Task: structure prediction
Amino acid sequence: MAKKDVVVKANKIRNWQRLGKFAKLAVLLLLLLLIVIYIVLKILFNDGSFVVALEDNKMLYSGLAMYETLNDPTPKRKLKAEDLQFMDNISIKWLPDDITEYEGSHNGKNYIAYSFYMENQGEAILNYWYSIVMDDVIKNADEALRIMIYVNDEKTIYAKGNSIDGEAEPGTKKFRDDEDGMIILEQRKDMKAGDLDKITVVVWIEGDDPECTNALIGGHVRLHMKLIEEHTEETLNELE
Result:
């Protein structure tokens, strides 16, 4: 073998070795990037399917308490429902009749259900507002979304307006369209000292909704609930 041939082969081997090192480094960097992306997405989209927060309004605070179970009425500022990794469409008819008889997370197949308590542990009559905010939606998954809220025995079902004229779907109250993502806002009035409200929130994809099509497959919705204590002038005078 000629000396020139030996030099050429040696150069090829070194080049292949360099390419191999670059390829390994590129694969490692790609894996690192994928891990970072996964962590970011997990933080953004998997921080609990449903979070309930009582806004801290110390100037008006008079004893409004939020907690998950009657066995532990210690006031909490934030409650977190268990996550549901996958949700297929179902009918409201498939939801259990006793869905309000549980505490905390009681998810079922293809629906989120969460129950908690609001109690006036103070001495003054007060009002409070409760709202649901849509933090993120992917692939228009909210088109067939249903949110059912029980406050004690009173039930209201909320949904996005239909795609034809924007009016409410049958048997529902239409979502708000606020810029900050708030889709539900309601007020609970005249909560007397010692009053106890049980709130149950149920979330599912309604299979009988005309907008429930294959286009929603792979979609995602992230929600949270806020509660804000409110006082009238009369109530504030009682607190002084």
